[in-house]
Predict the structure.
Amino acid sequence: KRTRTLTMAFDELCPPTAPFFGFMGAAVALIFANLGAAYGTAKSGVGVSSMGVMKPDLIMKSIIPVVMAGVLGIYGLIIAVIIANGVTTPTSDGVTKYSSFTGFAHLAAGLACGLSGLAAGIAIGIVGDAGVRANAQQAKLYVGMVLILIFAEALGLYGLIVGLILTSKTHTCGGAQ
């Protein structure tokens, strides 16, 4: 007598849980990048406000850290939109062509961009706060502060670049995308 094997109702490479990882990637990209942007904006904004009491003429010159921190949120938004658009909708019978490979790649992209944005936001906030206060006391420190801010912003840019590369790594159950 022959034994029968049970077959799964879905492709093992494209389980119905795969889109969860893609959406998690979009969420963590946006959440962590915006946490970094918020921290950087708040921390450096406090420094600008404190410095503005002593030297109000330097406020516009010292707003650079706040702007640079805000850009980090845009990096997270870019990756989140790309990932969310890459997650495919299941068919009417519940079958998805979105693979686990793609879901994990999208999760990795979101984590790379989001956590890089968080790290960059912390760095920008600390440097921005101390830098604008120091700039009010000694104008020669401005160029040094801007250079450090550029390198801190580069951390977020590295995460964006890696995230963009990872979002291009996809596989569908019907073949390569």
